[in-house]
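chain below, 250 aa
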Amino acid sequence: MSTAPTSAVPKREPELLGQTVVVIGGSSGIGLETARRAHSEGAEVILTGRDAERLERASRDIGARSTAAFDANDPVSLARFFDGLPARIDHVMITAGRPNYAPMLEMETAEVRAAMSDRMVLGLEVARNAAGKMRPGGTLLLMGTTGGRRSSPGIASAATAVLPPFVASLALELAPVRVNLIAAGFVDTPLSASLLGGDLDHRREQLRSTLPIGRVVGPADVAALAVHLMSNTAVTGAAFDIDGGQQLVE
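prediction:
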């Protein structure tokens, strides 16, 4: 009696084997999940954030190489961090910060200026400090939202709309390091929970019943896209929406 031969499943090489990923704002949510995914794909991971204790817990959770606790919006601390890196790195992802949904006419001029520029300025400062440390073909990843795809009351949509052209221009200046933008819709993270409070469960149920994918987008979904953009060296200056089809139905 003969048996049919079984074909062996080829073993896949980890996508980021031997590479180093820095996550600015990596102690929770999208940043932490991206760090986890990158580590599972063979990368060494360096986490940064403001809260040293939370960073340490995150580091133990995913097996990070090291952590650094500082405010990424402080230029001196940011420069000190990159200057202190002992070796070259490949990828930097910025997830630090939170959106501002305040009505523009109710904001002071300084608040409007900050809301419109905070993400760009942070991206630019990271680019300046990281450029000399990054290997060619690596990527700087910024986070935005899909709110900039259409106008709505408040500063958030205007502040987000400026990011795609900023990223495209920065990609030309930073080459051969690549620069890309991930624009997310609602993502079920601790930040979303803090913003929505008691309305969180209602929002989740609303999205489950209306999104074409039939579920809520989670941090792991964004992390999968982030790691793909790190490994795909043909992509730069681009913005990628990830919202489960939210823009199609709202």
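The radius of gyration is 19 Å. The beta strands are 20-24, 44-49, 66-69, 89-94, 134-145, 178-184, 239-242.
thats it, cya
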